Amino acid sequence: MSRSVIYYESVRCDKETEAALLAKAEDHPREGFWKAYGRLRLDGKPWNHKRLHRVYVKLGLPLRRKAKKRLPARPKMTLVVPSELNDTCSIDFMQDRLENGRKVRCFNVIDDANREIIFVDIDYSLKSQRVLWVLNHLMKKRAKPKKVRMDNGPEFIAHLTQFWSHAHDIQFLYIQPGEPTQNAYIERFNGSFRRGVLDAFIFQTIEEVREEAEKWVDDYNNFRPHDSLKRLPPTVYAKRYLSNTN
């Protein structure tokens, strides 16, 4: 290698380019390189995009890209009606708003065997710890389910819930992304719950939501006939046709 190459120093001055890029970054902090390049071209700056990008990177201006979290491959799960209670549960979240616009979330748990709604937890925020609290509560109240079916929501795929499922020897059945029909039992319930409670009233407080939900769930489980259960309520169907493992 020649000595001239080793000791070569560029005489190009990037001060004007740096100032222009910094100004664009300050005025439009959420726009990336190509938007800045386009704006400078419209301002009459004839700089080559390669040179501009070199200076852009040198100044540390590239925006941090949030990488999409890739899910493991989910096999297609065939819906099978269990022959006994507490074999498979389905869980899902719903969302609504109070009159003042504040968001309310509902965490629903049903027994796939008789479509009985086991629990509806309603609060402003429901995270992974709350999901596990509900499942632990139900295990004490009823019996430990063998399997739990759910979608790929962040509360369900968190490391904490994964650890919990292994610790309690409960199989988590994740449906394929974008395939809510693979969790059809609870999706069907969600539709009924939304029509009967969330869309039927305008709630001012979360206590009103809980009170109305409790009354509706009691009627749903004990008195409302279910078309797929020989037109019987879930609890009556369970007593007549299913073995109870409690």
Note the topology.
Layout: H1 3-6, H2 15-27, H3 33-42, H4 49-58, E1 88-97, E2 103-111, E3 116-123, H5 128-141, E4 147-150, H6 154-157, H7 159-167, E5 171-174, H8 184-198, H9 206-222, H10 234-241
Parallel strand pairs: 1-4, 4-5
Antiparallel strand pairs: 1-2, 2-3
3D structure, described in words:
The chain has 246 residues and is of the alpha/beta class. It folds into 2 domains: 13-58; 88-241, Nucleotidyltransferase, domain 5. The protein is built from 10 helices and 5 strands, in the order H-H-H-H-E-E-E-H-E-H-H-E-H-H-H. Strands 3-2-1-4-5 form a 5-stranded mixed sheet, with helices on both faces. A hairpin with a 4-residue loop joins strand 2 (103-111) and strand 3 (116-123). Helix 2 (15-27) packs across helix 3 and helix 8 crosses helix 9. It is elongated and about 95 Å long. The mean pLDDT is 89.
